[in-house]
Amino acid sequence: MQAHELKPARGSRQNRKRIGRGNASGTGTHAGRGLGGQKSRSGRKPRRFFEGGQTRLMRRLPRRRGFVNRFRIEYQPVNLRDLERFDDGADITNDILKEAGLIDSAKKPVKILASGEITRKLNVRVERLSLTAKEKIEAAGGTAEETTERKVRSERRGAAKRKRRKNKPAEGEAAGDDKKGKGKAKAQKGGGKAEAEKGTAEGAGDDKKGEGKAKAQKGGAKVEAEKGGAETEGTGDDKKTEGKTKAQKGGGKAKAEKGGAKAEGKTDGAAAADKAEIGKDSEGHGD
Questions:
Q1: How many percent of the chain have pLDDT more than 70?
Q2: Do residues 19 and 32 make contact, with C-beta atoms less than 8 angstroms apart?
Q3: Do the beta carbons of residue 72 and residue 81 sit within 8 Å?
Q4: Is the pTM of this model over 0.90?
Q5: What is the three-state SS of the chain?
Q6: How far apart are CA 190 and CA 200, in angstroms?
Q7: For residue 126, which of 115, 138, 110 has the smallest C-alpha distance?
Q8: CB–CB of 100/80 below 8 Å?
Q9: How far apart are CA 202 and CA 253, in angstroms?
Q10: Which residues partner with 145 through β-bridges?
Q11: Which positions ≥6 away from 32 have C-beta within 8 Å?
Q12: How far is Cα 284 from Cα 287, in angstroms, rounded to an integer?
């Protein structure tokens, strides 16, 4: 037999069903879609979870839908009493547990639980150990090590939550104190700023006051200078008047002296005239 002579087995391949090719084909008229309605239309399909207009089940039972955490890690549990089958000093890993039939897969994470007791010294290295199981293994003289880091800081999640709840009011008070301290600091800062502005204003007022005082002193000095000038002028006027009076007085004296000189001249003339008259009389008398 050659390759071109190969044929599929009888009945393994069937012809495709031809829809809407007449009643003789068996799927004519309605083409297998019924007697009409929404589902018989081409290109029309009800949306997902549609139940004909009634309230769908997902909304009728919202609390029973459930929630799947896609970040959840499913551990394969192994109890401490199951580790009693191993000899002292044995290394317990995922592969060893898989060979012993304690877990289903060596690729999935394993967690050792504290159910039961252990008396053998074992070196356990798995992804996760409970705190009690770790204490029991170490108390028996063995070692316990986790191969992956915990995502939460506290090993006891419940204790950490209770601690946070217990310290939450204190933290709130501390936050309130911080806010209060910040508000007080801001108020003090604002007061200091106001005082600084006030001091600046007072300094500016003092400067203006000093400037006004200097101007006033300068104006007073000017007034005094003008007053002194006026007094000087007054003194000059007095001196001038005094000089004028003296000059007038001197002129009067000069006039008086001149009048006296005239009077003397006149007196001398009168004396001469009298002398002449006396002489004339004497001549006449002698004649």
A1: 55
A2: yes
A3: no
A4: no
A5: CCHHHCCCCCCCCCCCCCCCCCHHHCCCCCCCCCCCCHHHCCCCCCCCCCCCCCCCHHHHCHHHCCCCCCCCCCCEEEEHHHHHHCCCCCEECHHHHHHCCCCCCCCCCEEEECCCCCCCCCEEEECEECHHHHHHHHHCCCEEEECCCCCCCCCCHHHHHHHHHHHHHHHHHHHHHHHHHHHHHHHHHHHHHHHHHHHHHHHHHHHHHHHHHHHHHHHHHHHHHHHHHHHHHHHHHHHHHHHHHHHHHHHHHHHHHHHHHHHHHHHHHHHHHHHHHHHHHHHHHHC
A6: 15
A7: 110
A8: no
A9: 73
A10: 125
A11: 19
A12: 5
Distance separating alpha carbons of residues 34 and 225, to the nearest angstrom = 127
Query: pLDDT by residue (tens digit) across 126-183?
Result: 999 999 999 999 999 999 999 998 765 555 566 777 777 888 765 445 555 666 666 6
Select from 3.30.200.20, 3.100.10.10, 3.30.420.40, 3.40.50.300 the CATH code of 76-151. 3.100.10.10
Residue 82 to residue 79: CA distance in whole angstroms? 5
Quickly count: other Cβ atoms within 10 Å of residue 42's Cβ. 6
